[in-house]
Amino acid sequence: MQPTLLLMAAGMGSRYGGLKQLDGAGPHGEVIMDYSVYDALRAGFGKVVFVIRRSFEKEFAVFARRFGGAVRYDTVLQEIENIPAGYSCPAGRTRPWGTNHAVMMAAPVIHEPFAVLNADDYYGVDSFRILAAYLQSPAAGQNSYCMVGFQVGNTLSDTGGVSRGVCRVDDGEYLSGIVERHHIRRVNGHIRYIDDGGHPVTLPGNTPVSMNMWGFTPDYFTHSERLFHLFLEENSRNPEAEFYIPYAVNELVQSRTATVRVLPTPSQWFGVTYREDRPAVVRRLAQLHASGVYPERLF
After folding, report:
1. I want to staple 101 with a disulfide (CB 3.0 to 4.6 A). Which of 92, 97, 186, 269 is the partner?
2. What does 144-197 look like in DSSP terms, one character per residue?
3. Whole-prediction pTM value?
4. Which residues contact 243 (CB under 8 A, 6 or more apart)?
């Protein structure tokens, strides 16, 4: 069975200053998620599901026409009001409930193993091959998930410090926990972050981090519904609370409900967090086309 690719494209990119998911950075106006779709299809994925917002549904429909008949895809909407009966949105909330909430929106259209990733991150060809191989193997099954683990040294930004989910991995294979670390950057040849006490801590360059590239099976939707209820019990009045994928995954791992296999990748991640990142992304994409990693036109 071919797995499905779920692309989370509902974020409006407030720090970036615009709808960065539809901002063309490739030689012919390609956006970053064009490369994810292309890499996924040639790795063996059969369908793509885009999570978007109603506010830019028309713009996305124009964007999707470029695929023609080359891509089977669905779109689902993530909105603030998509919460269970009995709960209400707190005053002042302006955005949906986070990345795992985005995943939940796709439950009606996904019935096979699936990958989840950000629409505005470039993950690399090898990462899709590794993920597709796992999702099509006997290892992928109920409560047996996976995550592509990037080396932190391959995920840094030239613009400034970044936040990453630093992973604890048992026996080099299975995730035992994720801790969000902030202000990670290279300083005098060393990779460091600032801990909660304000102190610098050094990380080895090959430390695995999560870049939101996950592999699940449909039972994950059921777990997410249950955990979302628990999340709302504690956070329904908080206008800033986010139901993140690492939150749900940590709960499942710590309770031994599920396992998450960490799949190492040699790929170099890059993305656009701030507008200052865009020129470097444009250069890298041009180089990938020039070196033959991608054809002149993707679709």
Report:
1. 97
2. EEEEEEEEGGGS--SSS-EEEEEEEEETTTEEEEEEEEEEEEEETTEEEEE-TT
3. 0.91
4. 97, 98, 99, 100, 101, 227, 228, 231, 235
Quote the CA–CA distance of 113 and 221 in Å, as a whole number.
11
Check residue 17 and give its pLDDT. 42
Domains of the chain, each with CATH number or no CATH: 4-290 (3.90.550.10)
Determine if residue 13 is left, alpha or beta; phi over 0 gives left, psi from -120 to 50 gives alpha, anything else beta.
left
Which residue do the tokens 């707190």 mark?
90
Q: What letter would DSSP give residue 296?
A: S
Return the bridge partners of 261, or none. 146, 174
State the Cα–Cα distance between residues 119 and 229, nearest whole angstrom. Answer: 26
User: Burial level of 65, CB count in 10 A (0-12/13-18/19+)?
Assistant: exposed
Task: Confirm if 152 and 265 have CB atoms less than 8 A apart.
Answer: no
Distance, CA of 40 to CA of 46 (rounded, Å): 8
Tell how strand 114-118 and strand 259-265 pair up.
Answer: unpaired
User: Across the 299 residues of the chain, what is the mean pLDDT of every consecutive 10-residue run?
Assistant: 94 47 81 95 96 88 85 94 88 89 97 95 96 96 96 88 91 89 90 89 93 97 97 89 93 96 94 81 96 95
One-character DSSP codes across 149-163: EEEGGGS--SSS-EE
b/e map of 218-243 (b: 16 or more CB within 10 Å)? eebbebbeebbeebbeeebeeeebeb
Picking from 40, 25, 37, 20, the residue whose alpha carbon sits closest to that of residue 285 is 25
